[in-house]
């Protein structure tokens, strides 16, 4: 029995949708949930553990920068919760207010982890460089996906397939960046732990606790996958409604 064109297109839509959910969406959600649980549990615990010397996150970051030859890197405070990051273009570090002012193991670990990213950039770490390339590629993929979305809106009859392809492109590229981030994050935590101990920025009795928090900090960016996933889910629902109305 031969299928007509409408049946063929409907089947193609189902194949694309199932491929997305099975190969992209579900693994991304599981990875995000694990990252959220791993980092959240450690951060909540070590946010209640003060440093022996009452060292704040900003003080630890500044001390580490000065001692690893990065004294020219400036520190800035920002209001975004856990938005801590190193800006390679401006050669500066942004610490959230909570991390900058808090004198806990969690704050020191997060702040020095960010400093370690600056060290990776200065040393031209290959995975850090690869991540930067991947992030630029993600931007291009997102732009291409947006073009598909516009095409879908202009032609409601084919909007569902266009939305599916666009959503898969956006979310798939985002997952790729996050996976490439993991070796960079593991490397940054290793650098931070080594330098904190070497320069005695933390007390010897805090070494184990700081090491555990730094290992959890590897997963600090994974929760972003959740918001991206639900955003794409809403995108799919909108496209499906448009296709049913057409």
Task: Describe the 3D structure.
The protein is mostly helical and about 250 residues long. It has one domain. It contains eight helices and three strands, in the order H-H-E-E-E-H-H-H-H-H-H. It has helices spanning about 5-45, 55-65, 95-100, 105-120, 125-155, 160-200, 205-215, 225-245; strands spanning about 75-80, 85, 90-95. Strands 1-3-2 form a three-stranded mixed sheet.
Biggest sheet: strands, sense, closure?
A: 3 strands, mixed
Form type: elongated
Mean pLDDT: 80
End-to-end Cα distance, whole Å, is: 27 Å
Layout of secondary structure:
Layout: H1 5-46, H2 57-67, E1 74-78, E2 85-87, E3 92-96, H3 97-101, H4 105-122, H5 126-154, H6 159-198, H7 207-217, H8 224-245
Parallel strand pairs: 1-3
Antiparallel strand pairs: 2-3
Helix pairs in contact: 1-6, 1-7, 1-8, 2-4, 4-6, 4-7, 5-6, 6-7, 6-8
Features:
mainly alpha, three-stranded mixed sheet
Brief synopsis:
With 246 residues, the chain is mainly alpha-helical. The protein has eight helices and three strands; from the N terminus they run ααβββαααααα.
């Amino acid at each position: 029995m031969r299928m007509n064109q409408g049946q063929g297109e409907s089947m193609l839509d189902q194949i694309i949708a199932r491929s997305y959910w099975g190969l992209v969406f579900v693994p991304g959600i599981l990875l995000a949930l694990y990252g959220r649980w791993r980092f959240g549990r450690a951060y909540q615990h070590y946010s209640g553990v003060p440093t022996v010397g009452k060292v704040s996150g900003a003080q630890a970051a500044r001390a580490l920068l000065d001692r690893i030859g990065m004294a020219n890197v400036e520190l800035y405070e920002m209001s975004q919760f856990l938005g801590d990051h190193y800006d390679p273009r401006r050669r500066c570090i942004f610490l959230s207010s909570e991390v900058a002012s808090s004198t806990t193991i969690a704050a020191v670990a997060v702040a020095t982890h960010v400093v370690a990213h600056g060290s990776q950039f200065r040393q031209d770490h290959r995975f850090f460089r690869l991540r930067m390339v991947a992030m630029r590629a993600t931007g291009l993929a997102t732009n291409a996906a947006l073009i598909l979305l516009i095409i879908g809106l202009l032609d409601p009859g084919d909007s569902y397939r266009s939305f599916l392809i666009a959503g898969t492109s956006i979310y798939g590229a985002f997952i790729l960046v996050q996976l490439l981030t993991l070796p960079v994050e593991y490397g940054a935590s290793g650098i931070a732990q080594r330098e904190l101990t070497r320069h005695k920025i933390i007390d010897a009795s805090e070494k184990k606790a700081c090491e555990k928090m730094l290992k959890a900090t590897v997963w600090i960016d994974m929760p972003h996958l959740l918001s991206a996933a639900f955003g794409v889910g809403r995108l799919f629902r909108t496209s499906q409604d448009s296709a049913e109305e057409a």
